[in-house]
Design goal:
- The protein has helices at 14-23, 43-60, 78-90, 100-103, 109-117, 136-146, 168-180, 196-200, 225-235, and strands at residues 6-11, 27-30, 66-70, 95-98, 121-126, 150-153, 184-188, 206-209.
- The protein is an alpha/beta fold.
- It has a single domain, classed as Aldolase class I (TIM Barrel, Alpha-Beta Barrel), CATH 3.20.20.
- The protein has an eight-stranded parallel β-barrel with strand order 1-2-3-4-5-6-7-8, surrounded by five helices.
- The chain is globular, with a radius of gyration of 17 Å.
Length: 241
């Protein structure tokens, strides 16, 4: 990934995938935006989108586009976790995002270690409250030692933006600690165009967007093409390599 800040955008359909590709979004995240914060997009739609991205790469000879996907807010068993991850990898997803309810659960560590040993790129998603926990440094060190590709913070409720829930010094420490451990670090959670300038100064690897770019500001609504292009215009040249 580029050393400069990039944009991650969550999509839920082929139409939205084509929109963000045309706008030059480098990080495309697959998510069922009509349900929970990390609700998994169905496999059939995930495959269609992954195929669209692959075709785009071939047509325009771009290699910097990455497809990530959430696997859901939780899972019932270790066997379910294996299935959730494997099915997405099989259809072309390249990075898997795990919620804190899964990556922090000792019951899943053997399974997670197995995927990491195979070279699977995993991102541990932290809750905003976890950033203020005194054990944050220890947890980030542990994730780095396990071999996670990256970490990010995201909100569950999108009615409030992350920046209204977490103080800037706390975000700064999270980002700097993660980067010192060579973890890719992302910031997301109800972000809008107005947050780009402020958060870019913290130098995260990427900012994640959805609700702030949707019609009426509702993540369950479709992405607004105008807002998507406004965002990319705002960050292109200055932030995105």
């Amino acid at each position: 990934m580029s050393q400069q800040m990039q944009v991650l955008m969550s999509v839920n359909s082929a139409t939205e995938a084509q929109l963000v590709l045309s706008a030059g979004v480098p990080l495309i995240d697959l998510k069922d935006t009509s349900h929970g914060a990390l609700a998994a997009l169905d496999i059939e739609t995930s495959k269609v989108i992954a195929d669209i991205v692959h075709a785009h790469r071939q047509q325009f000879e771009t290699s910097g586009i990455v497809v990530s996907a959430t696997i859901g807010d939780n899972c019932a068993t270790a066997a379910d976790l294996i299935t959730l991850i494997e099915r997405r990898l099989e259809v072309g997803v390249e990075v898997i995002k795990l919620p804190e309810s899964i990556w922090a659960d000792p019951a899943y560590q053997v399974i997670i270690d197995g995927f990491l040993a195979q070279g699977t790129r995993l991102i541990a998603v932290l809750l905003p409250t976890s950033l203020a926990d005194s054990s944050l440094d220890k947890r980030l060190h542990s994730l780095a030692m396990q071999g996670y590709w990256g970490v990010m913070v995201d909100t569950v409720q999108k009615s409030s933006a992350l920046v209204d829930m977490v103080a800037m010094p706390v975000l700064t420490k999270f980002i700097s600690t993660a980067k010192s451990l060579h973890l890719i670090v992302g910031i997301a959670g109800g972000l809008a165009l107005t947050h780009v300038e402020m958060l870019s100064t913290l130098n995260p690897d990427y900012l994640g967007f959805r609700s702030g770019l949707c019609e009426d500001g509702l993540r369950s609504q479709s992405l607004s093409a105008e807002r998507v292009y406004q965002l990319m215009s705002k960050v292109s040249g200055k932030f995105v390599g």
